[in-house]
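We both want to read discrete structure tokens more fluently, so let's practise on a single case. Would you supply a protein for us yourself, any chain you care to pick? Would you write everything just below, so we can both look at the same thing?
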Amino acid sequence: MKECPICSRKLITGDSIDEHHLVPKTFKNRYKDKVHTKDNKIIIHKVCHRKIHATFAEIDLYSYYHTVERILEHVEIQKFIKWIAKKPLDYYSKNKETRERKHKRRR
């Protein structure tokens, strides 16, 4: 069984996993060679995926946080990893985000 590269917990198949593009799909027109490669995608827990996109703007993901190692450097992600370690493997919180926050991420 594989592990999530973000939280290092086991991945279980089903609704609790997602595919994350390290170079965001937002940049697909400019950087087709980077976006559409096998190395650009990782399988992670949905809750980890949501945390990545809640923490980083798309431009930040493109410009610096486009590797797992760099994502793991961030203080917020480190705090999240400690917190999520105590949750069940299939844990996923469906918190609603405001339009303002969603718009802020895409800058």
